[in-house]
Design brief:
Blueprint (H helix, E strand, L loop, with lengths): L2 H14 L3 H17 L1 H25 L2 H18 L4 H8 L14 H15 L5 E5 L6 H15 L5 E4 L3 H16 L6 H4 L5 E5 L4 E4 L8 E3 L15 E5 L5 H4 L2 H15 L8 E5 L8 H11 L8 E5 L21 H13 L3 H9 L16 E3 L10 E6 L9 E9 L2 E10 L3 H14 L4 E6 L6 H11 L5 E6 L6 H15 E4 L6 H12 L10 H14 L14
Length: about 550
């Protein structure tokens, strides 16, 4: 019988009885099969481990702690078999004896698993480069430390290079790696890679060699501004972690250009042709090293065959809730991130919030709207009825673009933005949303920007209005073709700042908050990832001050 057939037979027996011998037979079967096909065993071990975990839990509930410990030991045995070939399993095995709430990985696993799987894809040559961006202090550098120890145990002959913006960061990374390799009580690196040995370390040079001394070390940690040429080499993995160290550097174009020059002239030449490159950190600017490298891979024909992936995981999800509310309170709550955002907004620095926490690099130079320039209100409208309530809508069909529109209550020349439409859902969701917002806010006039792609969008909105029993005037108006969208927004910006009054932070819905973030990120120069919200405001400003041209026509004489 081949290994797969033996596994199937033993697993069938294991499901019927979980006695000591059958469990040992299962472990032996997985070990023998792993010599032939280790990746197949990674998959085969999962249902076995699940069964062992269930048996452990059942034994613990019944009070048979000796039996529970036996199944816990079997669970660890399966992880030891698969850990050298599966990063997810490795990270679980590495901390297996630590209390769960003290572990790094398990409390964060649900969130970090996409990162882990992407790192594994790079290791198995399914990717050449990987870009990871997430907020500060969510565990990205510790994740890299654990990943690096996995690489070092798997193949000590490959040369890996870790770099960051300062010697302090690279020194901390070096110390963290040594802690994992040497602390056999807290970490199980020695159990997972029993044949691997630390051959030499040099604290002053921040190098580690595994198994034998080599000219280029198993791991070298060196800052971007340290000695790279001739001192290190990378044919395994090159990790570039936070190459921009501060907001001052991010705000200086000259310093960003200098950082890229160091990357292009000193760092990247250290990587051999087939070396894997990992970029990770805060996306400060469109012209930071990560941004320039990503743009090169996307748009230069010479890099057409380069396989890369970009994963951006912002602080807040589409529901304005934390993406990093880890188990056991080791992450960051929705309330924490909302407070951080409010602090940035109060200081008029939404650019830093978007860059550091929302993975949205924007250029401060050229931004048109800032919180301190906008008028705000606390949700209380003037006592009298508004002159009119209107809604200006920039439509979209979904696919990443947003349907955006401010619901405007006009009092003279002041316009209170009492609500917004803001969604990237398709028309089956956005059209009913527009109708519902119109009814809720007693909108009397609704204007939809028309173009070739949205000519029938108005019909869908009217049908949605009819279905909820609400009537208002709905018209379409094409955007002017005499100027670009960016210029149109820029021209209307003074009117928006002077006459439009927005809900203050703390009074906004999640939709409203995301609408305002897009407004703050709009700039007149360079690229705008999304400009739907400011475009809808420009349309509303046009509606506010549009002059009706007098018309003349001939009629019969009345006398």
């Amino acid at each position: 019988m081949d290994n797969r057939s033996v596994y199937s037979a033993v697993f069938d027996a294991l499901k019927q009885r979980q006695d000591r011998q059958t469990c040992k037979d299962m472990i032996s079967c997985l070990v023998n099969w792993s010599y032939e096909d280790p990746l197949a065993v990674v998959e085969a071990a999962r249902p076995v481990r699940k069964l062992f975990s269930e048996c452990m839990a059942e034994a613990a509930r019944s009070g048979d702690y000796e039996k529970a410990e036996r199944f816990r030991s079997h669970t660890y045995d399966t992880l030891l078999i698969t850990a050298p070939n599966c990063l997810d399993d490795y990270m679980q095995a590495l901390e297996f004896d630590r209390p769960v709430r003290e572990r790094f990985y398990l409390p964060r696993r649900a969130v970090l698993l996409p990162f882990v799987q992407a790192l594994e894809d790079m290791t198995y040559d399914r990717l050449d480069e990987l870009f990871l961006s997430c907020p500060p202090r969510v565990g990205k550098t510790t994740l890299l430390m654990i990943y690096e120890t996995w690489l070092m145990g798997r193949n000590s002959e490959l040369h890996n290079l870790y770099t960051s913006y300062s010697d302090i960061i690279t020194g901390a990374f070096y110390s963290g790696i040594l802690e994992i390799l040497r602390d056999n009580v807290t970490y199980k690196w020695g159990d997972i890679f029993p044949a691997a040995r630390i051959k030499s370390t040099k604290a002053d040079e921040k190098t580690i060699d595994i198994d034998r001394n080599k000219r280029y070390k198993t791991l070298t940690c060196r800052s971007l501004y340290g000695t790279l040429n001739g001192a290190c080499d990378a044919d395994g993995t090159l990790i570039a972690d936070d190459l921009i160290g501060s907001i001052e550097e991010a705000m200086s174009k000259d310093r960003l250009v200098n950082a890229w020059s160091k990357v292009d002239n000193n760092l990247l030449p250290r990587a051999k042709e087939h070396c894997k490159i990992l970029w990770i950190g805060t996306r400060w600017s469109m012209i930071d090293p990560m941004g320039l490298r990503e743009d090169l891979l996307r748009n230069d024909a010479q890099f057409k065959g380069r396989r890369f992936k970009v994963i951006d995981l912002p602080a807040m999800n589409e529901n304005d809730e934390s993406n990093f509310d880890y188990d056991y309170g080791v992450g960051f709550s929705t309330e924490y991130f909302r407070q951080r955002r409010a602090s940035f907004e109060r200081m008029g620095d939404m650019a830093s919030w978007l860059a550091q926490y929302m993975c949205t690099p924007i250029e401060r130079e050229g931004t048109v709207f800032a919180p301190q320039d906008m008028r705000m209100f606390n949700g209380v409208l003037p006592e009298q009825d508004p002159d009119r309530v209107f809604l200006a809508t920039d439509p979209a069909w979904g696919g990443g673009d947003y349907v955006a529109g401010p619901v405007c209550a006009q009092y003279g020349d002041d316009v209170y933005v009492v609500d917004v439409v803001f969604t990237n859902e398709d028309k089956t969701k956005s059209q009913p949303d527009i109708a519902m917002k119109a009814k809720r806010n007693s909108v009397g006039y609704l204007q939809i920007e028309a173009n070739k792609m949205t000519e029938d969008y108005k019909d869908g909105v009217e049908n949605a209005l009819k279905s909820i029993g609400y009537h208002c005037t709905v018209q379409t108006k094409p955007a002017p073709t005499s100027k670009s969208k960016e210029q149109r927004i820029f021209d209307k910006a003074p009117d928006i700042k002077e006459h439009f009054i927005f809900l203050e932070d703390g009074k906004r819905s999640k939709e409203y908050q995301m609408f305002m973030q897009q407004v703050y990120s709009f700039k007149i120069t360079g690229k705008n990832k999304h400009d739907d919200a400011p475009d809808s405001l420009a349309m509303a400003a046009d509606m506010l001050f549009r002059k009706q041209s007098p018309a003349a026509r001939a009629i019969p004489r009345l006398f």
